[in-house]
Amino acid sequence: MDRNRYRFRCVWRLAAPPDAVYAVLQRAEEYPRWWPQVREVVPVDDTTGTARFRSLLPYDLVVTVRSLRRDPAARVLEVGLGGDLEGWARWTLAPEGTGTRALYEQEVEVRARLLRVLAVPGRPFFRANHVLMMRGGRRGLAARLRAV
User: Fold this and answer.
1) What digits encode the pLDDT tens for the residues 58-70?
2) What is the pTM of this model?
């Protein structure tokens, strides 16, 4: 196992139709409005931007995000990541009753020097940090969908 590689998988169940969820998720520049741990998203062009994240740990991650797939018919959004994290992340949305099952998958390698140095002792904290970030995102997205 490479101590600097992570694979995450998370399912959110949301009380809104898949197309409504997709409409919110495709506007990454608005994530800081509803996802507290996404501190900043700056579009560079139509397919690329930079994002800054911070959860519980006192450390900002800065990544370049590049759109790889935007498929509203299949309800899939996938991005490539570079910078402090290198890899990809993907949302796959499916109807579930009257709501949506949102599957989030991410595979990354940590590139930030400090986090690489702390890879072994920090791994449980980095994983917990991610869990807290995802919890904040789910709550924020649910609230955003209720408001829309």
Assistant:
1) 899 999 999 999 9
2) 0.94
